[in-house]
Design brief:
mainly alpha, globular
Amino acid sequence: MDTGTLLSVLVGIGLSAACGFRVFVPLLVMSLASLSGNLSFSSGFEWIGSYPAAVAFAVATVLEIGGYYIPWVDHFLDLIASPAAVIAGIVAVASTVTGMSPFLRWSLAIIAGGGIAGTVQALTGLSRIASTATTAGLGNPIVATAEAGGAIVVSVLAILIPVGAVIVVVAIVVGIIFWPGRALFRKVRSRPSEMAMKK
């Protein structure tokens, strides 16, 4: 695998991970990067870099990010975000990877792109559940802001510094796994002492 192909794979993986945070943010960043001449797409995906696509992705991004700040709507979005994130992750990899046969490109897109996007999305869903359980939903806007910020940072890094994007994704995923687990552990550990105080 040559350097150009490897870099395109890292770009695709970074963008697919960002799709797990927010479905439309990476697609918007991809479209804007293409319009500015900083990203080229594999054959058949040039439409992502069109002005109509950029406008559509911008509207969808605003609606998606805004929806996560509305109680109950955020949980509904989590339900539909899982399959949407997988599809977006597949598109992100398939559209950016170059120098591979179509079979290898689509295999990588489905396995790595869809798998990474789905995993990150599932972990963010767990962090929202942990936030709801530990803060009665009051912490959900903070989680939503962190997720949107993560989507933006990882998307931009994936295009500008692909290796940096992969490192940031690994750090974020470790953090997502650690934070809800620690928060739930503290809540469970504090229950026996609360019950003892009531007695």
